[in-house]
């Protein structure tokens, strides 16, 4: 007799047939005695189609009206899921973000949840109903409709789970869970039964996009257990929890990679205070996320400044960088959009020296040159030539014995020791 | 410097291009110094497509969820119209039924408006914005989304015009206005510059579907002037007002016809009190609208009972009629779905005896047999064989001198007299 939040993404509700499939999964939980809140996204590519429709009306859709438009996608889904449930004899009711009382700030297209009033939720749950909530959307204090940004339905699900203190927040997706590496690149990659919030957050921001990072932050803040699992079968997926590595003490949990990377180098930047601030605050103002930053003192009074951005932000970034560089007295701005990033993530890293060295060794053994390095307490990222990326991921994955086969033999060795 | 409500139907906003066209019309009014509230329907066939989607999920979509689903259609339209207006430099904001404060009862799929809170409307108008409101929808006191039934956007527009005491409620449509007869049947039919609420109501319920009857009732109740006009050009259409015939004293304003008619006759019904009540209350309970009712005493103690329903309700009606008839001791139930109705409407009829006789004479001269007659203070309807319907409309239209040519020659005669 638990209290569950289940979230289904756009692929899971893309057609009437899939909606009925999703409804059957929900019905199973309901008949199993659980109280269930369901969060759904817009059907299939609805959101993209609505954005395209807006662009046919105006080149620059105003953000408030874009949110008014986009929020209809989830509203269609919740109505249909509630219909499918009722058709199967499960009492169900759909609620928009506004109706469920998800109050946000007024930053249209990427609003943040401020509070959730749970009165209506409890009322419907107490009446024995499955509550089907529109993901991705909320309302401001003055009742204007907002959306939470791409992937915002994950955030809705976790926020609801936190607000009603659910036992678990199940995120149904088209992958089986979180793997030690992308299985398409590393065939021996293993499904992780459990992972910590911190590791998940690094994985998500490093390119293994399974959950919206904000939803993981929120889960960490409120201690919500997220269960990432497949909507196609019943096997358990990956649980994201506060402390994951306690029993198994694995140093490295997974290897991720990211191809959406571009490198920019400004040569001979004057080496004086405020230069980096000047440049990066201009980029931040445009919402451009700067990832790795490496500054190398080359000769007296000047340095080379290397940093990376998403490849999709490259053109916009270059325009600004060239202007700022020129104002700083240099015109030598170089860029490379054929780089990639390979990273190791693991909460155990912090207390295990030599982890980074082992990664560099694995890359060196493959003859792969490292162009830049960035580290945090639980991750090490290396910037390399994109053409070596898959090989790098496999080498690093092997080096830390993360594969299904290696893990087995390690376990055997451990028991023989 | 007036206060206007403008309503655009689904055809007018069917594509991004038409939405921009509509926005230009609104912008003209705005730049002309008017304060404007716009009401829009769902784009093109959106509502039908959403209903079809629901039917793919369940054979019997629950009404609350159907309203949740259908209301998205208008929400898409208002966002796009507001975007198009802003693109043209007109400050505009879209509001859902819920946001604008259109409160209804809880009868899903055919809710009735209870009250409109005008605070947000006035706030936006005072800020110099065009307010684009979703037609067809409202919310209950508990914030559940309702819809007002087919054509409900007309009702939204009139209700808003009443609530904010607008100078005029313009209903843009794909016809030029209200004609003395259907121009496709009677080529000489004339556009009526003005018509009374009562006449419009009879026209609407008699098959000349230009406005949702409920919207006309509401306009009559609050004295809202409705201006029915074309969305394709700028010419004036038909104004629906309290007293239309004062100056011109036309006895008959228009001729309408209706093909969606089926006749049912129950032979030898026992002639005792309560029989009609029994039958018609069962039909009413199913929402089946009974139109003409004629009871003919044939022999002692039994009568024949003739009545008409919409042809689309025939099967459902027959099932009930056969059961009730059998309980009353007769099994002789006949029906005919090849009938049609021709009607004359005119507020001047009441003070002009002989109007009905003139209509019957016109039909007799064409050799058309009248199967049943029903009258009100401002209309006379005759049930005839459907195959004679077009000819009947033309004959009656001629008999009352309603055509463009006749009206002209009458005017000439009058000036010569």
Automatic annotation (TrEMBL), chains A, B:
Domain of life: Bacteria
Family indicated by similarity: Belongs to the aspartokinase family.
Keyword Nucleotide-binding among record annotations: yes
Keyword Transferase among UniProt keywords: yes
InterPro entries, per database record: AceGlu_kinase-like_sf, ACT-like_dom_sf, ACT_Aspartokinase, ACT_dom, AKii-LysC-BS, Asp/Glu/Uridylate_kinase, Asp_kin_monofn, Asp_kinase
SUPFAM superfamilies to which the protein is assigned, alphabetical: ACT-like (SSF55021), Carbamate kinase-like (SSF53633)
Name of the featured protein: Aspartokinase
Biological function: Catalyzes the phosphorylation of the beta-carboxyl group of aspartic acid with ATP to yield 4-phospho-L-aspartate, which is involved in the branched biosynthetic pathway leading to the biosynthesis of amino acids threonine, isoleucine and methionine.
Domain ACT: 264-347
UniProt pathway annotation: Amino-acid biosynthesis; L-threonine biosynthesis; L-threonine from L-aspartate: step 1/5; Amino-acid biosynthesis; L-lysine biosynthesis via DAP pathway; (S)-tetrahydrodipicolinate from L-aspartate: step 1/4; Amino-acid biosynthesis; L-methionine biosynthesis via de novo pathway; L-homoserine from L-aspartate: step 1/3
Pfam families, alphabetized: AA_kinase, ACT, ACT_9
Keywords: Amino-acid biosynthesis, ATP-binding, Diaminopimelate biosynthesis, Kinase, Lysine biosynthesis, Nucleotide-binding, Transferase
Reactions catalysed, as given in the entry: L-aspartate + ATP = 4-phospho-L-aspartate + ADP
Protein species of origin: Carboxydichorda subterranea
Main enzyme class: transferase
Gene Ontology terms for molecular function: aspartate kinase activity
EC number: 2.7.2.4
């Amino acid at each position: 007799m638990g209290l569950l939040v289940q979230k289904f993404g756009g692929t899971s509700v893309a057609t009437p047939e899939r909606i009925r499939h999703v409804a059957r999964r929900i019905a199973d939980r309901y008949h199993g005695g659980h109280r269930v809140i369901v969060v759904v996204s817009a059907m299939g590519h609805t959101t993209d189609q609505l954005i395209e429709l807006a662009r046919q009306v105006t080149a620059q859709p105003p953000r408030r009206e874009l949110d008014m438009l986009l929020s209809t996608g989830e509203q269609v889904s919740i109505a249909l899921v509630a219909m499918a449930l009722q058709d199967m004899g499960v009492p169900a009711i759909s609620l928009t973000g506004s109706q469920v009382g998800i109050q946000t700030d007024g930053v249209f297209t990427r609003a943040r949840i401020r509070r959730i009033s749970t009165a209506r939720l409890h009322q419907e749950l107490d009446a024995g109903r499955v509550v089907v909530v529109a993901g991705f959307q909320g309302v401001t204090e003055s009742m204007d409709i907002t959306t939470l940004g791409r992937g915002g339905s994950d955030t809705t699900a976790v926020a609801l789970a936190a607000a009603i203190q659910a036992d678990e927040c199940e995120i149904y997706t088209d992958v089986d869970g979180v793997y030690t590496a992308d299985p398409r690149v590393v065939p021996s990659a293993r499904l992780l039964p459990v992972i910590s919030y911190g590791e998940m957050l690094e994985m998500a921001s490093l390119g293994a996009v399974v959950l919206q990072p904000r939803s993981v932050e929120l889960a960490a803040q409120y201690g919500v257990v997220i269960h990432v699992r497949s909507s196609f079968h019943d096997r358990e997926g990956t649980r994201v929890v506060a402390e994951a590595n306690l029993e198994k003490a694995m140093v490295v949990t997974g290897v991720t990679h990211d191809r959406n990377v571009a490198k920019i180098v400004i040569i001979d930047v004057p080496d004086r205070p405020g230069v980096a601030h000047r440049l990066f605050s201009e980029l931040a103002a445009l919402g451009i996320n700067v990832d790795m930053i490496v500054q190398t003192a080359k000769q007296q009074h000047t340095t080379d400044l290397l940093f990376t951005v998403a490849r999709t932000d490259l053109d916009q970034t270059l325009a600004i960088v060239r202007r700022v560089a020129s104002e700083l007295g240099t015109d030598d701005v170089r860029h490379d959009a054929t780089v990639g990033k390979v990273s190791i993530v693991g909460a155990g890293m912090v207390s295990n020296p030599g982890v980074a060295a082992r990664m560099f060794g694995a890359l060196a053994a493959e003859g792969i040159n490292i162009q830049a390095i960035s580290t945090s307490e639980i991750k090490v990222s290396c910037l390399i030539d994109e053409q070596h990326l898959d090989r790098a991921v496999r080498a690093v994955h092997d080096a830390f014995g993360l594969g299904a086969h290696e893990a087995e033999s390690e376990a055997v060795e451990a028991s023989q020791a």
